[in-house]
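Lecture notes, continued. The same structure-token format from the folding unit now serves as the input rather than the output. Read the line below as a description of shape only.
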């Protein structure tokens, strides 16, 4: 039987979203940090795992650069689109909670950009991190995307005028924290939640960024910008996406993490490709 999530993605055009202007901001930003943390080796010797790969926007782009890319996607419809692109990506159906087809310490970098949106319990989110950690090489890096609480409250609650309804039916608690159920399809978190998942999974942060900044709030404005102004906006966002006051304020946050080591975090800049 098809799940509600599969029904949703059968209708939702993820490929189109990431090619829209607000989607381009997210894609360009995410690719910048993926490249930052890829090891300095011949591309074909670097193994990347894209968990929750969708239609392959990231995995295909990286494969075209020569990287050894494997993709895992839950939704058959998305997987079909990915496979039709005839790239070198090795694509499988599966989910973030069970990566049993892969051995321990197999990948240099893992992209976990979709699954956390749709896992509703801390237990499942930590389990997804633990599975990614298991198949990650000891010196590897994981990039994890989350959908953020305040974006949901401001857009769905206030802008779309559902705020009173959400307070009355328990979808928001007294602290304006989103309380979703599986039929809502998306879960939303705050920065302290992300910290708790990392701690439970034995992971430590290298850095955290706002993947899209204010772009999701500005869709119509972005669409009316001339190309030069839009490129200036992207430059502004890339310049400010690490600022603490902006992380967590947009619709997506990307947490960049590694296996926890004794003795804290040393300077990593020499280990990664620019």
């Amino acid at each position: 039987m098809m799940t509600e999530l599969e029904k949703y993605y059968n209708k939702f055009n993820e490929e189109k979203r990431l090619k829209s202007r607000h989607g381009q901001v997210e894609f360009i930003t995410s690719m910048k940090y993926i490249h930052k943390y890829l090891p300095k080796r011949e591309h074909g010797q670097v193994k990347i795992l894209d968990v929750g790969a969708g239609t392959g926007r990231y995995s295909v782009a990286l494969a075209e650069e020569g990287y050894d890319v494997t993709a895992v996607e839950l939704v058959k419809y998305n997987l079909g689109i990915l496979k039709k692109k005839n790239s070198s990506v090795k694509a499988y159906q599966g989910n973030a909670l069970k990566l049993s087809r892969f051995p321990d310490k197999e990948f240099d970098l893992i992209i976990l950009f979709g699954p956390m949106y749709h896992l509703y319990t801390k237990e499942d989110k930590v389990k997804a991190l633990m599975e990614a950690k298991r198949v990650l090489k000891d010196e590897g890096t994981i990039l994890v995307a989350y959908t953020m609480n305040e974006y949901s409250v401001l857009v769905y609650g206030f802008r779309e005028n559902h705020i009173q309804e959400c307070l009355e039916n328990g979808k928001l608690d007294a602290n304006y924290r989103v309380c979703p159920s599986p039929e809502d399809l998306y879960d939303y978190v705050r920065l302290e939640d992300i910290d708790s998942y990392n701690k439970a999974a034995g992971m430590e942060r290298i850095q955290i960024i706002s993947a899209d900044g204010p772009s999701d709030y500005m869709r119509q404005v972005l669409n009316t910008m001339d190309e030069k102004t839009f490129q200036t906006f992207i430059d502004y966002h890339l310049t400010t996406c690490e600022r603490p006051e902006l992380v967590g304020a947009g619709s997506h946050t990307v947490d960049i993490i590694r296996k926890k080591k004794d003795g804290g975090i040393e300077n990593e800049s020499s280990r990664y490709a620019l």
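Point for the exam: The first strand starts at residue 47 and ends at 51.
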